[in-house]
Amino acid sequence: MTLRERDRVVLDIERTWWLDGRTKTEVVRERLCVSLSRYNQLLGDLVINVEAEDYDPLVVRRVRRARDRRRWAMMGVRPASDRHHR
To answer: At what angle do helices 36-46 and 57-75 cross, to 10 degrees?
Structure first.
C-alpha cells in the first residue's frame, strides 16, 4: 500500500502542528477538514503502515510508543522498558 497525499499530510501535521501557534484541532480542521477524532483514527491506521514508517520513522515510532503506553496504563501495569533497574 502506497501513501496517499492525505496520509503524508497527517504525518506532517503530527510532526509540526505545535510550530503553528494554534491548537492541534485548529490545524487539523484547516488542513484536512476533519475532526480531531477522525484525525486520530487516520493516524492510528498509519502507524501500522510500513510506508508511513519509511516516510517519517520518528513520528511513527513516537506515536506507537504513546499508544503502547496508554494501553499499558489502562491495564494498570508498566512495560519493562519504563521500569528503573537497580
So the answer is: 110
Give the DSSP per-residue string, the chain: -PPPHHHHHHHHHHHHGGGGTS-HHHHHHHHH-S-HHHHHHHHHHHTT-HHHHHH-HHHHHHHHHHHHHHHHHHHT---GGGSPP-
Q: CA-to-CA distance for 8 and 72, rounded, in angstroms?
A: 28
What value does the mean pLDDT take over residues 6-18? 96
pTM score of the predicted model: 0.82
- Residues sharing a CB contact under 8 Å with residue 69, sequence separation 6 or more, in sequence order: 79, 82
Domain that holds residue 53: 5-75
In a domain, 31, yes or no: yes
Tell me how many domains the chain contains.
1
